[in-house]
Design goal:
CATH superfamily of the largest domain: Acetylglutamate kinase-like
Structural class: alpha/beta
CATH architecture of the largest domain: 3-Layer(aba) Sandwich
Number of domains: 3
Strand content: 15-25%
Low-confidence stretches: 134-144, 204-208
Helix content: 25-40%
Mean pLDDT: 87
Largest sheet: 6 strands, parallel
Number of helices: 22
CATH topology of the largest domain: Carbamate kinase
Length: 700
């Protein structure tokens, strides 16, 4: 607390603290004094047994406050002195708000302290306050309960016209029912009039107020023009610095707002996707396929509307100059792209007939006790994508095929395109009443805030720059992330490479779509090929295609005048640029790939089958090819219809992730009055563990 307040104060912000604690300090001090006094008296009157069992009297709160004020302030001064911050104590009572002159004096004192860069430490003067009147809190402008720091803070916030009031509690924020109770959910944004939707529990064990008092104070301050956040001050959840996190705009605790958003909150969208996904999974396979076929038709039928929306996005991006050329290419849609999308979606529909509920293992555990392992949806997917509106229908179709709920978060540069594509997706879903299964997040939700919705989201799939993926992997606490952070793909040209194949494969790998994650970034050439006609052909082709060449350290050492030496061998260019490096053997090529690659896609060009098989077996990447372009690393080209992305992780799914990668399994056990005790040493039953044939798959 002290460090955070000090940091913000030193940044030029004006900070005030409303605190309690004087009574607690004083109680501890008076108890110590009484015990010390009793021990002295007992020593003086050792013969009088009636004094030996003297109990500590009940301590009066006002006396405790009087004794504890100095200790409380000494603590604050000691802590703030460490950060070169001066603090000053201001004690208030009811009279300071009831009397107009006293109010002006208080206001002037606080403003003068703030002007001098001093942090006011404000608390009620509990040594002289009268007992509080029942139900008097916040009943009018000039009425305030002196026993309640929450209402005192609200009153001061309005009086001083503060920008923000942070009310710290021992829970994360305001819940719709008492925290710890079943189904209690944190309310991220609370609006006036929502009190009836909240069930308040008992008051806090510490202090005089409870959450109900905090809410009343927060609403009163909000009405007076001050923004309010209630958050956990004992176990901050985000970075450990709850105050600075809130000031920086991070999603912490419960924010009080007078303006309700036009649409549902992202939490509500997550719940809708969860329910919609379960309803989607409950449909017949033919019905899910019908939805995808309908979406494919809409992509071609509504082509003009889609391209018009995409044109708006392209014009906005060009006018603002925010996007690099590779990202502009990704943002652009065309008739051919839409036709390819429609073809891919129809492939997904055709291959999805038995995706959900497919039996992949059957075992007879014992007589009349059969076990099945079947495929089921993962749950709710969060897909975050940049500058790729064509990603939306692809991912939506895969989610529909697998019965998963879906939250989509696209970049604002593709807002118009994403909006029309989502509308068409919901239109297709509506034919079977499951439009809620796919949600597009349109609120200004930060990606890191979405990544903390661990109770709503089961898997995050980022599609975008390596920086985006790294940010998501860092922000996702408790939610698995599927994807790759970089696409550093290699092509190794072996000594036995075919002249006819080399330039074709390299040109396609680098130049067909240089912004793609499966484009060639580093070209490895066997040393024996240097200064040969084949090498000259490769260089000439790259120059004709206007590919900028960067020389690796070994390649540069062979040249008198070399291209610019590469800054890093671990670079994803995403443009018409590549690195050329020299290796002495296939073994060195594999070592280079393992050291500098990203386990995405790597290729060998050779006519030597033995060398090729060695490369295929020993390169540890998601996709390893022989005499084929890196650009084949794609869900559509693999026959998956589409992909949600390419995964370089080693758990669950690897490579282009299609239908299979969006499914998990569950176990179904069918018995007849079976209990484990029957299988004990002296039981009547024995385990069989017999493999049973699988039902025939639907291949239509």
């Amino acid at each position: 607390l002290y460090r955070q307040v000090s940091v913000l104060q030193n940044q030029g912000r004006e900070m005030m603290i409303v605190t309690s604690g004087a009574v607690a300090f004083g109680k501890q001090r008076l108890r110590h004094e009484i015990l010390l006094s009793q021990s002295v008296r007992q020593a003086l009157h050792s013969g009088q047994s009636q004094l030996k069992d003297m109990a500590i009297p009940v301590l009066e709160a006002r006396a405790c406050a009087a004794a504890g004020q100095s200790g409380l302030m000494a603590l604050y001064e000691a802590m703030f002195t460490q950060y070169s911050i001066c603090a000053a104590q201001v004690r208030v009572t009811n009279l300071d708000f009831h009397d107009e002159q006293k109010r002006r004096n208080l206001n002037g004192t606080l403003h003068e302290l703030l002007r001098m860069n001093i942090v006011p430490i404000i608390n009620t003067n509990d040594a002289v306050v009268p007992p509080p009147e029942p139900n008097s809190d916040l009943q009018g402008v000039n009425v305030i309960s002196v026993k309640d720091n929450d209402s005192l803070a609200a009153r001061l916030a309005v009086e001083m016209k503060t920008d923000l009031l942070i009310v710290l509690s021992d829970v994360e924020g305001l819940f719709d029912s008492p925290p710890g109770s079943d189904d209690a959910k944190l309310i991220d944004i609370f609006y006036p009039g929502d009190q009836q939707s909240v069930t308040f529990g008992t008051k806090s064990r510490v202090g005089m107020g409870g959450m109900e008092a905090k809410v009343k104070a927060a609403l009163w301050a909000l009405q007076g023009g001050t923004s309010v956040v209630i958050a956990n001050g004992t176990h901050p959840k985000i970075s450990g610095h709850v105050i600075t996190d809130i000031v920086e705009g991070k999603k912490v605790g419960t924010f009080f707002s007078e303006v309700k958003p036009a649409g549902p909150t992202v939490e509500q969208q997550g719940e809708m996707a969860r329910t919609g996904g379960r309803n989607l999974a409950a449909l017949q396979p033919e019905q899910r396929a019908e939805i995808i076929y309908r979406l494919a038709d809409l992509l071609t039928d509504q082509r003009e509307e889609i391209l018009l929306a995409n044109k708006k996005d392209l014009e906005d991006a060009e006018n603002k100059g925010r996007l690099a050329l590779p990202l502009l290419k990704r943002l652009s849609l065309s008739t051919s792209k839409l036709n390819s999308l429609a073809i891919g979606l129809r492939q997904i529909a055709a291959s999805s007939q038995d995706s959900v509920g497919r039996v992949i293992r059957r075992t007879r555990i014992a007589k009349a006790l059969d076990l099945e392992q079947v495929t089921v949806p993962i749950g709710v997917l969060l897909v975050i994508f940049e500058s790729r509106p064509d990603c939306l229908p692809q991912v939506a179709a895969l989610a529909i095929a697998t019965g998963n709920g879906l939250l989509l978060k696209g970049g604002k540069e593709a807002a118009h395109s994403n909006q029309i594509l989502h509308q068409l997706t919901q239109e297709a879903l509506s034919i079977h009443g499951v439009k809620d299964a796919v949600q597009l997040v349109n609120t200004r939700e930060e990606v890191e805030d979405l990544c903390r919705l661990d109770k709503l989201i089961d898997l995050i799939i980022p599609r975008g720059s390596s920086q985006l993926v790294r940010n998501i992997q860092k922000a996702a606490k408790g939610i698995p992330v599927m994807g790759h952070s970089e696409g550093i793909c290699h092509v190794y040209v072996d000594t036995d490479a075919s002249v006819e194949k080399v330039t074709r494969i390299i040109r396609d790998s680098k130049c067909e779509y240089p912004a793609a994650c499966n484009a060639l970034e580093t070209l490895l050439i066997h040393r024996d090929l240097l200064r040969t006609p084949l090498f000259d052909q490769i260089i000439d082709m790259l120059r004709v295609e206007q590919v900028k060449i960067h020389a690796g350290p070994k390649f540069a050492s062979y040249l008198t005048f070399s291209p610019s030496e590469v800054k890093s061998l671990r670079t994803e260019y995403g443009d018409l640029e590549c690195c050329i490096e020299v290796v002495d053997s296939v073994h060195e090529a594999i070592e280079h790939i393992h050291k500098y690659g990203s386990s995405h896609t790597d290729v060998i060009i050779t006519e030597n089958e033995k060398t090729a098989e060695f490369f295929l077996q020993h390169v540890d990447s998601a996709c390893v090819f022989w005499n084929a372009s890196t650009r084949f690393s794609d869900g559509y080209r693999f026959g998956l219809g589409a992909e949600v992305g390419i995964s370089t992780s080693r758990i669950h799914a690897r490579g282009p992730v299609g239908i299979e990668g969006l499914l998990t399994t569950k176990w179904l056990l069918r018995g007849d009055n079976h209990v484990v005790s029957d299988f004990s040493e002296h039981g009547s039953m024995k385990y069989l563990h017999e493999s049973l044939p699988l039902p025939q798959r639907n291949t239509n």
